[in-house]
Amino acid sequence: MSLSRTADSEQLQWRNCPEFMPESCEIAVLQGDPTKPNADVFFKMQGNTSVPNHWHHSAERMVLVSGEMEVNYKGQEPEILQTGAYAYGPPEKPHSASCLSDETCLLFIAFNKPVDAFLAE
Questions:
Q1: 48: left (phi over 0), alpha (psi -120 to 50) or beta
Q2: Most Cβ neighbours (<10 Å): which of 36, 39, 57, 59?
Q3: Helix, strand, coil fractions of the chain, as percent rounded to 5
């Protein structure tokens, strides 16, 4: 068993998100290799910012660690996630997200396929 890591852990290496996402967006790998299946990451974005419509090859299993976030999947009603909420995002389904709080939104995401993100048209 490996030790758990927190968002402020000095062991975490925060990296920029893809170019189409807000500049404040960062990702840190918690476990696994993001180029291979079954990686877990922290995704964070500054309060009061939004991520444009995008999609992933993988399903996403998510828990909001801090903040308040609205997630909007194509063809579904938008959902507001509160701290501690679990959400499932189906693979290849376009979606957007907004950090509604003034504080940073921190999201734990488990991917079952390699981590990727593509701007949706």
A1: left
A2: 39
A3: 0, 45, 55
- The beta strands (E) that lie in 14-92 are given as 14-16, 26-31, 39-45, 50-55, 60-66, 69-73, 79-81, 86-89
Could you tell me the CA-to-CA distances from 54 to 4, 9, 97, 116 in Å, in that order? 29, 29, 9, 10
pTM equals 0.90
Residue found by looking up tokens 């500049």 in the block: 23
Residue indicated by tokens 């030790």: 3
Q: What is the pLDDT of residues 70-96, one digit of tens each?
A: 999 999 999 999 999 999 999 999 999
